[in-house]
DNA sequence: GCCGTTTTCGGCCCGACTGTTTTCAGTCG
């Protein structure tokens, strides 16, 4: 897929134009386009072949031409020219927190410093103090920023960030100065991984709250401390926590602003302008600076003629238009989930017995569970032989006799072999209630081979679900390169569901891919892939991915009742 | 560089905090 490359080139062009001091809107156009292209599920090459590049929002005639240059010639003239002019090390310098294009350019023009290494030396020897506008405090900030850059702040997984955020909220909510308090930012939008934690408070006096905030024992250091806003580093995970305080009549407007996303905010503020209003974090104001709304998010949306947009949708992916035309989807909720269709047991590499899994499923209010152990070839995970399948099936049959209004489905997570066949013959597969198929080996195959394997698994009449379709494992490996559009087509044509795997490191399909799958008519299964019964509690993470993908309960097969599901499984 | 229910030209979200300089530029979200 060329998208990553195009996005990277556009991002670099944007940075280099900024370093040159070019028009800031031109800089933004490249940056914006980079973000859009990075999010596309369809290969820009295919879009270009259809001649549809300029239909992408943010891509005009000029950028479309540059994309075509990159498709045919791997680069574009502007990029090559800029590279001759601007040392690549300056792009690295821009990634140091606190350093922007102006400062990097100033430093480079005066000292020829073009790497983080050289900058660190110049800062520590106080050579930088000779530059205009740079004094001791700025030098200290640069040294500190380099430290953060070198440690490389990893994104923190959603559940970990929620737990840390919860500690901050719990520590602050009972202060008498605090009225309302809410988590905001990407964590409220339920992104799978976040780079900081945002917390909003309505309260008074603000200074008192800031004072309490920065001296919490869970705070490692204070980065910023103003009258209404402060930024600290938490001890745990070294994650940055931003606190913003407003008066209570502004809480809704501030929550909107602080929840983002940035692109969503820009669109919403533009929409306010179109109505003749101004929207900021204090409220919606008319031409005479009179506040018309701001206490709640709901009243701001209503004033702008929109339905309430759930935080998970606020990514500038068409939600504002949908909110105006009353076409927002009714998003799937955790309470819509009727069962977990992918959990393991002690029969293969799970740590819980089938009975324990079933007990947990009932405790979660489910109607069914599918216990899907690994297949024969996956020796490392104790894949099941024919005899073991028989034994497992007998145990499930016996257990099911005990239950009222609950059912264990006998399933398997069968390996997709290198040639695209499945790891059990058809006569074995058809004995299972449910078959989940997955790639666990040959991950380094070519895009063409991997795509072909998954497509043939979709076509197998006994396969119901493709598990973790892209193989992404946060911190360990990227998604493997497959042609998702071919997979979506096969999944839709052969009525095979694709999984949103709720395991925190996976979350695979991700939101944009699941959204594209839905558009192609593909059904989704949201599963936990639990290897220990407690892990089944992670279902909410997968549901959040589904919500970010605009899924309703009708898109998700495990929102079906048992009878309906059994019928669907007949294919 | 993009875009159009005021527009094919002239706009492009808006404000807090910091550091350095005495009123503001740079960075960030």
Provide keyphrases for this structure:
single chain, 571 residues, DNA polymerase, domain 1, Beta Polymerase, domain 2, 5 domains, 43% helix, DNA-binding
Q: How do you describe this structure in short?
A:
The protein is of the alpha/beta class. The chain is 43% helix and 15% strand.
Q: Which fold name fills CATH's third level, the topology of the largest domain?
A: TIM Barrel
Shape: globular
Report on the biggest sheet. Answer: 7 strands, parallel
CATH domain class of the largest domain: Alpha Beta
Helix percent reads: 40-55%
Structural class: alpha/beta
Counting structural domains, the number is: 5
Number of strands: 17
Q: What is the terminal separation in angstroms? A: 32 Å
Q: Give the helix tally.
A: 24
> Low-confidence segments, ≥5 residues, pLDDT <50?
none
**Secondary-structure arrangement, i.e. CATH architecture of the largest domain:** Alpha-Beta Barrel
Strand order across the largest sheet: 11-12-13-14-15-16-17
CATH superfamily of the largest domain: Metal-dependent hydrolases
Q: How large, in whole angstroms, is the Cα Rg?
A: 26 Å
Averaged pLDDT, please?
A: 95
- Strand fraction equals 5-15%
